[in-house]
Structure to design on (168 residues):
């Protein structure tokens, strides 16, 4: 019997409570997405200022930062100054201790390569590899990231960087 049929076997009162909890769970997920979206918008506005780190520290936004928000900020601002995005990326780790996800590392590395900031991109790649993700996951994720963010034909550079760091 499928899970829907099992619901039919529950007393009506329990069934209503379960349905309420399921809808509550969906609402919570949507609420979290909306809150993260608002946070991303707010951070994106702050990043346009030269004193963005001071502005962030003076706001409550730091309490809302997490790896998913940082990834979304990098995604939303992919056409912005990649060195500023790198500063935000480094700041969120050094000041707040946020551990970045694989996608954030890769997005940033590709964006830096697109702007010919190769030494900085290599530093991001080194930190990503030090974090210990499985190589197969790195290359799979890197392929999709390069397809999405590569605009300057630097995709082979990013792959070369990753391969060279793994060789060390």
């Amino acid at each position: 019997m499928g899970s829907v049929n099992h619901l039919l076997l529950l007393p009506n009162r329990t069934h209503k409570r379960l349905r309420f909890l399921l809808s509550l769970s969906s609402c919570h997920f949507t609420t979290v997405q909306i809150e993260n979206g608002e946070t991303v918008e707010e951070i994106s506005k702050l990043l346009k200022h030269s004193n963005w780190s001071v502005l962030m520290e003076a706001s409550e936004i730091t309490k809302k930062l997490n790896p998913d928000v940082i990834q979304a900020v990098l995604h939303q601002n992919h056409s912005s100054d990649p060195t500023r995005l790198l500063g935000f990326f480094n700041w969120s780790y050094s000041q707040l201790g946020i551990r970045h996800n694989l996608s954030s590392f890769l997005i940033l590395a590709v964006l830096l390569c697109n702007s010919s900031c190769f030494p900085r991109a290599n530093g991001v790649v080194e930190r990503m590899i030090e974090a210990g993700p499985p190589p197969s996951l790195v290359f799979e994720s890197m392929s999709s990231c390069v397809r999405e963010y590569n605009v300057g034909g630097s995709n082979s550079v990013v792959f070369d960087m990753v391969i060279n760091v793994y060789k060390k």
Notes: The radius of gyration is 20 Å. Residues 1-32 have pLDDT under 50 and may be disordered.
